[in-house]
Amino acid sequence: MIRSVSVKSLAKVNLDLRVLHKRRDGFHELRTVFQTISLADTLEIAYEPARRTELKLEDELNIPDNLVIRAAHAVLESVRVHARVAFRLQKFIPMGAGLGGGSSNAAAVLLALPVLAGRAIPFETMIQVGAGLGSDVPFFLRGGTAVALGRGTEFYRLPDIAEEPILVVSPGLHVPTGPAYQALDQGLTFPEPSSSISSFQAFVWALTERHSAGAASAFSANDFETVVFGQYPQLKTIQRRLRKFGAAGVRMTGSGSAIVAIFRSKAERERARKALEGDRVFRGCRVMPAALVSQRSYERIWRRQLHDHLAPDSHLTDVLWPPLTRYAQ
C-alpha cells in the first residue's frame, strides 16, 4: 500500500550572525539567531514497503548529492525498514542564498518519512541524524526562533516573536562561504570577541523583551556583511534602498546573498514592493514577500500537513514532538 504526502519545507533567515574566531578543529565559533519564514519548497513523498530499498528523486534542478536522498537513507537505516520511496521536489527557495533550503528539505524528510513508515524516531536521535546531514538541519526539526552556538549546531529555543511581514531579495549571486570565512580569518573585519558577544547579547535581550525582530534590529549585525558587500557592492546598495523604502530592519542572511527586510505592516511591505518594481537596482532580482513563522505556527503547519497519517489523538496535545504516526507497529 502506498502512503503519500505533500509538505512545505520552510526557509530560514539569520536575524543576527557573529563570527568570533577559528577553532582548533578548523571550524568557526559562531553566535547566531535563526528564524523560520514562510517562503518554502514543496516536497511530495510516496512511500511503499518493499523487500529492498529503492529511492527516487524527481528534481528539475538535478541538485548533486541532494540531501533529500541522504536523509531518506538515514531514516530508513535508523528505523531498520526497506521501502520504495519516490520524492518530487519543487524548489522555490533560492539556492546558495543563505536561506537553508537544502537543510530544510532534509529536515522535512526526517519529520515526514518515519510517519509514513509507521515508525517512531526519538527526537534526540532525530537531532543527531540531522546534525550528520548538515549543521542547521536540527533547527528545522522545530523551527521558530533559536540561538545557535559553537559551529551553529547547538540550539536553544527563544520565545516566539511577532510574525512580521518581510521581503526576501535574492539577486541571483552565489557567494561562496569558504572565501567569506577566509576574508574574516585574515582580520579584515573580525571584531573583538568580547565586544561582539556583548552586542549579540544586547540583540537577543531586545528580541526577547520586545518580541519583535523589527524593534530589535537596531542591535543586530551580520559579520559577513562588510566582507561580502566589499566583494559584491550591489548587495550594499540593495540594503540601503530597502531601508530608504521604510523597512524596520534590513540584514543579509548567512554569508549571502539574500537580503531580508522586516516591515511593521503588510501595507508598508506592499508599498515598498511596488516601489522596487521601478528601481533599476532590483532588475534581475527575485523579490519575494513572506513572513516570520513562530515555532507554534511551524509545528501547527507540520501537524496539518501530516494530519491524515497521524494518530487520532495527536492533535490534542502540543507537547509530543515529533507527532505520532497512526501506523505504529
Can you walk through the features of this model?
There is one protein chain. The chain folds into 2 domains: 3-159 and 294-316, Ribosomal Protein S5, domain 2 (2-Layer Sandwich); 165-291, GHMP kinase, C-terminal domain (Alpha-Beta Plaits, 2-Layer Sandwich). The strands form 2 sheets. Strands 1, 2, 3, 4, 5 and 6 form a 6-stranded mixed beta sheet that branches. A 4-stranded antiparallel beta sheet has the order 8-9-7-10. 35% of the residues lie in helices and 26% in strands. The protein is of the alpha+beta class and 329 residues long. The mean pLDDT is 92. Strand 8 (249-252) and strand 9 (259-262) form a beta hairpin.
What number of structural domains do the residues give?
2
What is the H-and-E element order? EEEHEHHEEEHHHHHEEHEH
Helix proportion range: 25-40%
From the 3D structure, determine the CATH topology of the largest domain: Ribosomal Protein S5, domain 2
**Class inferred from helices and paired strands:** alpha+beta
**What percent of residues are in strands?**
25-35%
Main beta-sheet strand count, sense and barrel state: 6 strands, mixed
Helices and strands in order:
Blueprint: E1 3-22, E2 28-49, E3 54-59, H1 67-79, E4 83-90, H2 101-117, H3 123-133, E5 145-150, E6 154-157, E7 165-170, H4 177-185, H5 193-210, H6 213-216, H7 224-231, H8 233-244, E8 249-252, E9 259-262, H9 266-276, E10 286-291, H10 295-305
Q: Nutshell version of this structure?
A:
This protein is an alpha+beta fold and 329 residues long. Helices cover 35% and strands 26% of the residues.
